[in-house]
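PT: before anyone asks, these are the final sequences, not the draft ones from last week. 573 residues across everything. Please model them as a single complex and drop the result in this thread when it's through.
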Amino acid sequence: MKLTAEQEAMLAGERGETMAKVLETLVRYGDLYGADEMVSVTSKYNHLVTSFGLKALGPVYELMGKLIDEGAVSQTGFSVDPRPLDDNVPASFLQKIIFKHFMYSKQDFYEGQLRELGLMGDDAFTCTCYMDEVGNVPAAGDVLSWSESSAVVYANSVLGARCNRNSGIIDLMGSVCGFVPRFGLLTDDGRRADWVVEVRCERRPEAQLLGSAIGMRVMADVPYITGLDAWLGDELDGSAKAYLKDMGAACASNGAVGLYHVEGLTPEAREQGRALVREGARVYVIDDAELERVHASYPVVWKNADAKPKLCFMGCPHMSMEQLEQWSERIAQGLAEAGRTRVSVPCVFTAAPAVAKRFAATPAARVLDAAGVVVSSICPLMYMNNPLSAKMPVITNSNKLRTYSSARYYTDDEILDILTKGAR
Amino acid sequence: MAKTFTGRVVVPGTVSAPALVSHGGLNTLASFQKALQFGDKESTCGDQNNPDLYGKKMRGKALCLPATIGSTTGGLVLYCAVAMDRQPACLLFSEEIDSLAAAGAILQDVWLDDAAPMPVIDCLGEDFLSYVADGMTVTVTQDGSVVVD
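LR: through. Structure below.
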């Protein structure tokens, strides 16, 4: 990789041993993928995946401490994934003790480190930093040093920004240096599609199932998705963005997709059309039967597959304002039809702090509250990652949460039935 | 009969260990959750979607795989696994290493002064993953040669 004189000097230790190691990390990272040079990070803010003060991540805190001690902090400021704790989320006495005093006992300490490294603010904890309310919305063409698989795939695909699927820590190092190695999804060639995914469903495909099917098949490749505009239209409105957010998160967690194009809808597909598709690209046809097959393949890891759900998490990734409002309506209508007033399973809707605050000022928030639904900014995954929660029969409409925990996936309609009619 | 495969050295090192093979992508976060959070020193794979590895002990094994997938915490999860001495003996990729595993491989080599680096070889080819099976002895040499016996 060609480095500038300044970068060469940094690598040689002119700015200290820690900065030399930071750059060595980025150089070796880029060299593996044939990066030709470093390019400037152009986004206003960065986004990090590591938001949780897990006691077990001692080696990470040690590394962060070295960076802070040497003044190797973010040049732009950053948002970060959701907090792992919220007293408003239902939990047993024992769970609360385990969360606060064992698992996440380093949370306060780590948040202190994040503030020193460049955290945007106390409300900057969300996996959907790209929501308007949060304010970390990169422009098309911006070069990012982000991580968080669902945020990276959204920024690349829906916003047209450019970011590789960086790991935690690498994200921060790009932000510390202010540049990242150019390879992969930062290049025009790396953004071309290796697959054509033909959606031929008779009914609107569930975003979470469609994303799962695509991720499991194409893995880390770039898919060019056709037939979806029939269901989403040709405008990136709030509804389409929410759909793509959830589909992308499933692509990225069930596989390793960092970028997808949707014909007629996402920015690069609208500009370049099928010129984005590589010659010889493979084809994957998805119809209703294929989605059924994928859904049926999910293992049920509950000890008792017939257990009554004890908790429902909705919003992994965090819900948008529009999703909160739509679900409020659906819950209210479902309960009214069933002659009930409260949901049958304790339920948590999650959204970014700034989105949750905006939503709290609406009449819909009072509807949810009356129905017994909690709105939180917690990370459901962090809630689930312990032996006590893992034993709980938790349901979700998130394919990401299903993948990383014992939570059981249900479609949106199934979840609504469970919540409002007690069906299962 | 022993068969030799040659790949690209991501992190150099020599090691000999029994093979543990995943034909699908290794979901790093899901796989190492028990090791990092629940004190499982043997790193029992917790990824319910990986029938090849689920429930098997990964520590000390020559982990043979096409790629890693899933959460972008993957690199720091690998980094912590090495720092906590709960890592596989080596990582052997049939494909070009993915960006998350690459981060973990590089971070442990650059930043962990006291830990013995975990050798990582990639680009070993599809034949490698077709040939190697659980329990075979795998020997990795400094130049990226991988002998499967």
